[in-house]
Specification:
- Helices cover 88% and strands 0% of the residues.
- It is mostly helical.
- The longest helix has 29 residues.
- It is elongated, with a radius of gyration of 16 Å.
- The mean pLDDT is 88.
Length: 69
């Protein structure tokens, strides 16, 4: 990680980290939505969808907060 920081400015590193974190959150959201599609129990399906939505909001907030700074 230290070698990664040396090759780029700290702001670029932070922006790349934020994009990676957002991508991870979006991947998790997609995984949860797939699980929800296969879930026969309505309440569990709704909870999976809600959790996926929360991951999507986190992904958006990471990128919005990072771009405002």
């Amino acid at each position: 990680m230290a070698s990664d920081i040396r090759g780029m400015g700290i702001l670029e590193f932070a922006a790349n980290a934020a994009h990676a974190r957002a991508a991870h959150y979006n991947e998790q959201a997609a995984r949860l939505r797939e699980m929800a599609e296969a879930e026969p129990i309505g309440r569990l399906r709704e909870q999976l969808i809600e959790t996926a939505h929360q991951y999507e909001k986190m992904a958006s907030s990471v990128l919005i907060r990072r771009s405002q700074n």
